[in-house]
Amino acid sequence: MRTAVALVILVLAGTGGDLAAAHAMKRVGEVKNFAPLAILRVLGRAFREGWMWVGIAQMALAFCSLLALLSWEAVSFVIPATALGYVTGALGGKYLLGERLTPRRWAGIGLVSAGVTLVCFG
Amino acid sequence: MTPSKTRFVKTSILVAVLVVSGSAGNLFFSAGMKQIGAIPDWSTATLHAVFLKVFTSLWIWLGIVSMLLFLAAFMLVLSWADFSYVLPATASMYFFIPLLGHFLLRETVTSLRWLGVGLICLGVVLVGSTPANTTKKD
Fold first, then answer.
1. Total structural domains in chain B?
2. How far apart are CA A50 and CA B7, in angstroms?
3. Among A104, B30, B69, B85, whose CB has the most other CB atoms within 10 angstroms?
4. ipTM beyond 0.90?
5. Smallest Cβ distance to B110: which of A19, A39, A122?
6. B137 in a domain, yes or no?
7. Domain extents for chain A?
């Protein structure tokens, strides 16, 4: 039971954190200058976005769940189980961030999820 | 270089950084937590002891540094690329780990695992052939 709860928290908080960070970075704007100082300025602007902190809080929760899961279960179980995140991430990208998911991208995401599961159980 | 070509090149470089730092980070965290052992219960005393062990572990700190690099690259690439593009592209790390295990560490890689690697490659190629950004035009 504790494994199932931690896994649900890991997948949902992990995806939610990534989506919030993605939203914050879209608000910051496309990075075009990769000089170290320019990158630091961009990261500084990103950390002044509220959505970035919403994302970091969820990532921290997902990180705690990951550490707990890794202490209870084999990594060969934990990592393939997190492949669910590819599907929840795609759904979040489509419905929360307005991304256009073509059938080709859906097929790719499905193959990656199946492949990660086979690699870790194989 | 056209804007879309520039975007393709910088996306590829940052995805490579994501794959290397993400693989290293997961490996370090796994080594650290195996060294610390299972969390036996959720009492305050136990959590305090685990917290101290976690944050005094060299493996965990190496994992944290790798993951900070991963986070910075992730934030930069998401400033222009779709999340639904970046996420499956980072799955390339599952392609490199069995290959390195097979050729460097002489590990046995089962045919099921090779099949999984093949599916991941095909999936990453399919996702990579879609536009990195579908929410705005060049």
1. 1
2. 27
3. B85
4. no
5. A122
6. no
7. 2-121
